[in-house]
Amino acid sequence: MGIDDKAKxxxxxxxxxxxxxTGKVTxxxxxxxxxxxxxxxxxxxxxxxxxxxxVKD
Length: 57
What we know:
This protein is an all-alpha fold. The chain is built from two helices and no strands.
């Protein structure tokens, strides 16, 4: 996995965390759920990239 992909996944996860936290603070359940989903999506992408890396080795 390239550094680019790692950075993109990390940025997506951080953005999801920001959304989730903002949703909690503002009592916006929709925004909080979007943030959780975005973090989960980034985690899945990261896991897939880790599997690709393991197969290459």
